[in-house]
TrEMBL record:
GO terms for biological process: cell wall modification; pectin catabolic process. One of its GO terms (molecular function) is pectinesterase activity. This is Pectinesterase. The active site is at residue 246. PROSITE patterns: PECTINESTERASE_2, PROKAR_LIPOPROTEIN. The lineage of its organism: Eukaryota, Viridiplantae, Streptophyta, Embryophyta, Tracheophyta. It comes from Linum tenue.
């Protein structure tokens, strides 16, 4: 049997297993239904179950579909509570020794959640989750995010194999292009440290360009341009983001809730550079209940595009903010159109008396309400947490 043939047989087995699960059939395995029919079972939401492997133990038994003592199926064909689980183990005991190797085992155009369980270790590699592979979860240990690290060290000025500069976007250590992505208990790192004023030092740790993504207890660590929240609706909950210059940037519509946002800047920098060109774009970065700390001094945000939108509500802000707070990116016209504001923040860095005059330091509850919870990202449509 050629390798390819073997793969396609395994593929059919997976579909059949999924069908059995959904119909609860106890008869003989039947032919998989046509693709159209499968569509009716596609879950267009993310739940806690997708972000976790509660009760799953890699050490004893491999999920509830396995009989005791039975050998674990190869090629990551194990199932646990109805989801396929692929194990990444640096030491060779899993389905793959690399994270990318596990992503490669996910079938294209999959319609079911696939959980990639990454065992503790530092994985030195670049990872891309392609647009053709939705419903992927990367799961480490939610109690200890430092145990499972994916790290690389490209910066924008590095050259590719053809001698062309990578640019910021392609510097990312981990790139997510697909929809309905989840990650829990993982550190995403770009280990390049920006030299202030240095050329091409942008070095992305995590780039999220898929729609509808959920991050729970992850750490995103870099220096300049750490998190490229490129496009789509995203939810970061109880996560930790570190950097110095524009370290959360992009065109996302994104809620950061109960997160730690940590400045590693020495003299200057900025937390958020949200990119929004017109008032019609339903995007923005909303920080709710976050802790802003670190070294400093940095700005809360810079206006990338005329209508950049960044709001901090109910945050605790340490003394790490440059008093003016916000920058128009040397484009005074943007002072009229940027939506930058703070609502009921506390801490020494939350003193708004010396903020730029054009920032919204006196939001009413009515004005700020659309940004305060999951409704901002239409979470009721795609999150069931
Ligand atoms: C996760 O990390 C915690 C804290 O270090 C540890 O007690 C626990 O055993 C870890 N869980 C697994 C499954 O490794
Ligand atoms: C931004 O605003 C300036 C000044 O009002 C205008 O000339 C420019 O076309 C705007 N840019 C976009 C992308 O709309």
């Amino acid at each position: 049997m050629t390798k390819q043939r073997k793969c396609s047989v395994l593929g059919v087995a997976v579909v059949a297993a999924a069908v059995l699960l959904f119909f609860g059939s106890c008869g003989a395995a039947q032919a998989p239904p046509p693709a159209e029919e499968m569509q009716t079972f596609v879950r267009k939401f993310i739940s806690w179950d997708d972000a976790r492997l509660d009760g799953y133990s890699y050490d004893n038994g491999y999920g509830d579909e396995q009989q005791q003592g039975e050998a674990r199926p190869s090629y990551g064909e194990a199932y646990y509570k109805g989801s396929r689980v692929i194990v990444v183990d640096q030491n060779g005991g899993g389905d793959s020794v690399t994270v990318q190797g596990a992503v490669d085992l996910v079938h294209e155009f999959n319609t079911q959640r696939v959980k990639i369980h990454i065992l503790p270790g530092t994985y030195r590699e670049k990872v891309v989750v392609p647009v053709t592979k939705p419903y992927v979860s990367l799961i480490g240990n939610e109690s200890d995010v430092s145990k499972t690290v994916i790290t690389w060290h490209n910066k924008a000025s590095d050259l590719d194999s053809r001698g062309i500069e990578l640019g910021t976007f392609k510097s990312a250590s981990v790139t997510v292009l697909s929809d309905f992505f989840c990650a829990t208990g993982i550190t995403f790192e770009n280990s390049v440290v920006a030299v202030p004023g240095g050329y091409g030092m942008q070095a992305v740790a995590l780039r999220v360009a898929g729609d509808k993504a959920f991050f729970y207890r992850v750490k995103i660590k870099g220096s300049q341009d750490t998190l490229l929240d490129e496009t789509g609706s995203h939810y970061y909950y109880q996560s930790h983001i570190l950097g110095s210059i524009d370290f959360i940037f992009g065109r996302g519509r994104t809620l950061f809730q109960d997160c730690v946002v940590e400045s590693t800047a020495e003299n200057y920098g900025a937390i958020a550079a949200h990119h929004r060109d017109s008032a019609e774009e339903d995007t923005g970065f909303s920080f709710v209940g976050c802790l802003i700390r670190g070294t400093g001094k940095i700005l809360l945000g810079r206006a990338w595009g005329n209508c950049s939108r960044v709001i901090y509500s109910y945050c605790h802000i340490d003394d790490v903010i440059t008093p003016p707070g916000w920058s128009d990116w040397d484009k005074p016209d943007r002072q009229r159109t940027a939506v930058f504001g703070e609502y009921r923040c506390k801490g020494r860095g939350a003193d708004t008396r010396r903020r730029v005059a054009w920032a919204k330091t006196h939001f009413t509850l009515q004005e700020v309400k659309p940004f305060l919870d999951l409704r901002f990202i239409d979470g009721h449509q795609w999150l069931r947490l």
